[in-house]
């Protein structure tokens, strides 16, 4: 394993252990509302502190972009960190959340970790080295047609600006796919596309730390990731469409026609 990925795994596991320790004490956790439907707890902060201290210890000069503490400039490597992806789930005891860490050099994501601390599932990828779930190499699904595809999504529950277009996309995709799921952790949703549990995924209005690790997992497992226009701007726009090579183009077509009518 590349030393950078090794450090990312160590940081993600440390954060995961900390998060799990709080699971049966949710009533006692200190929670703040950052914005509409956007909560942050002492657990998000503690998990982020744990991750940042592992990074700082190993690579003191690297830049960090972390959800709760923002951007810290540094040299050519940047760590993109979501210490707890799925905070709403976590705060309700709904067992679906993750830790997401990506390492970016210039505009390229080089290494990625998404860790599900409850199932102890560790998704990793390094550019050019494939993607893994624990020790096993993963591939996207082989589903060929939308009618057989299970599609993941996220509701636009924070920024309502995307609500109407998302609803028309949802309608068209629900009618043509085998099913749509909203699990509540975008990083884990993308990891599920990478290992074939989902055949496709789309969401609008995400942040870079929700997507950075998951998109490399998908690319390294043979899948496709783009924004709804088919371009590679998703980390900047926050709008992402992903899937295996058969489902991704069908999903893009449905999303575009939904927006047009
Ligand atoms: C959220 C989760 C959720 C997605 C939201 C994200 P957070 O991240 O990824 O699935 O729908 O848009 O903001 O706030 O729990 O880290
Ligand atoms: Ca997130
Ligand atoms: Ca988060």
Number of domains: 2
Examine the coordinates and then state which fold CATH places here, giving the name of the CATH topology of the largest domain.
Fructose-1,6-Bisphosphatase, Chain A, domain 1
The CATH homologous superfamily of the largest domain corresponds to Fructose-1,6-Bisphosphatase, subunit A, domain 1
Output the helix-strand order. Answer: HEEHEEEHEEEEEEHEHEHEHEH
The overall pLDDT, averaged over residues, is 95
Query: Helix count?
Result: 8
Provide the spatial order of strands within the biggest beta sheet. 4-3-5-6-7-8-9-10
The profile of the biggest β sheet is:
8 strands, mixed
Principal-axes geometry comes out as globular
Distance between the termini: 48 Å
Structural class per helix/strand content? alpha+beta
CATH A-level architecture of the largest domain = 2-Layer Sandwich
Instruction: List low-pLDDT spans.
Output: none
**Radius of gyration, CA atoms, in whole angstroms:** 17 Å
